[in-house]
Amino acid sequence: MLDVIDYNQKVLLMRLEQLMTMLGDDPENSFLHFAIAKEYEKLNELEAALDKYDYILNHDPEYVGLYYHQAKLLEEMGDEARALDIYVKGIAIATDQKDQHALSELLNAKMNLEIS
Question: What is d(CA 47, CA 40) in angstroms, rounded to the nearest whole number?
């Protein structure tokens, strides 16, 4: 079992390294920052993931895919107040962009957090 875990972690680390190399060529690419955040989450490097989400929030607040994932991570980390704030911001962005899929996900997640 340990060999499988080691292998999976190596694959994640290799993927993370590839993404970081790509980011070096295109440092403003929000999708790459997002993909790196997701890899950090898989590696349980939650603070590093949050740093990447915060980067996107500060540099590309129109990146609607950010909000659900950042808020979910904040929930996992126990920061429910900030998660709610991120949901609210994401709902506004999704509404402005007329992105019904993102809006639905964000509204449902916010409601679930509020009733929990």
Answer: 9
